[in-house]
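Note to self: the last two entries modelled the partners one at a time, which told us nothing about the interface. This time every component goes in together.
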Amino acid sequence: MKTTRNTAAKTAVLEIFGKSKTALSHTEIQKQIGDLCDRVTIYRILDRLVNDDIVHKIVNLDGTVKYAKCHHHAQRVHIHNHAHFSCENCLEITCLENVKPSYILPHNYKVNDINFTLSGLCPNCLNSNN
Amino acid sequence: MKTTRNTAAKTAVLEIFGKSKTALSHTEIQKQIGDLCDRVTIYRILDRLVNDDIVHKIVNLDGTVKYAKCHHHAQRVHIHNHAHFSCENCLEITCLENVKPSYILPHNYKVNDINFTLSGLCPNCLNSNN
DNA sequence: ATTTTAAAAGCAACTATGTTGCATTAAAAT
DNA sequence: ATTTTAATGCAACATAGTTGCTTTTAAAAT
Ligand SMILES: [Mn+2]
Ligand SMILES: [Mn+2]
Ligand SMILES: [Zn+2]
Ligand SMILES: [Zn+2]
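The predicted structure of the combined assembly is written out below.
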């Protein structure tokens, strides 16, 4: 069993996630980290955090990849089956933890992971853009 | 109104889509196209086909982007709200045209597009792997 | 407290994917 | 046949992510 270590960089990344209400891309994290660590290190930290079910990965229709903290640890089978909203205007991606899709799958499919992303206009942009 | 033209390259791409039962990446199409046209041309054809609602774009959790023919033209509001299945073993992505997620969104969100991708093991790989 | 060990980081080089500008070609309307 | 402009080719660029290898360092063992 390989142990996971608490490094300065990892702590900084987790702190950034803690402060953010929206999902963050590698680049956005890098901007906040500055030169505290190398950009490769951020990639590796994100990989580890995803592996340890501490953050989850969100892939948008435009190809951008973002990460957000998990708010639902207890479960044994850890699937992020909630929706994500991607605003085409402000480009923010938010977890909609309470929006869970229901669907009926044909037999003989084994689902390990779900990516459910809705794009459009978020409440903020819908109001101001009218 | 700008008109769309039928070129040799576009015809070839459409033919490739016609023959394929699974979704195709730019690279996969390029391999089949050979040197019939430049790789940039394939990108531009795919963009046009997506714009014209002839194919739709699928983004997988591993970041790979694939395209598949649309089988549902008639509708006015053209949203590809069906599920896609991405097999972690054979790496094929298939449209599950009949699997449509239902979900309840909070007020004030305007949805323009949906990306709903399930990853796991497809029926083929589930059988042969165990 | 000191030593050990292997996880994590730094750095450079590389790959993969997608984009842009501009000159040239060719589909299709006239 | 001529005209128009969508589409292509090509080169250069941009961005995101990966890999190999050495060095550093967290934390376990002593
Ligand atoms: Mn989420
Ligand atoms: Mn589809
Ligand atoms: Zn917004
Ligand atoms: Zn499979």
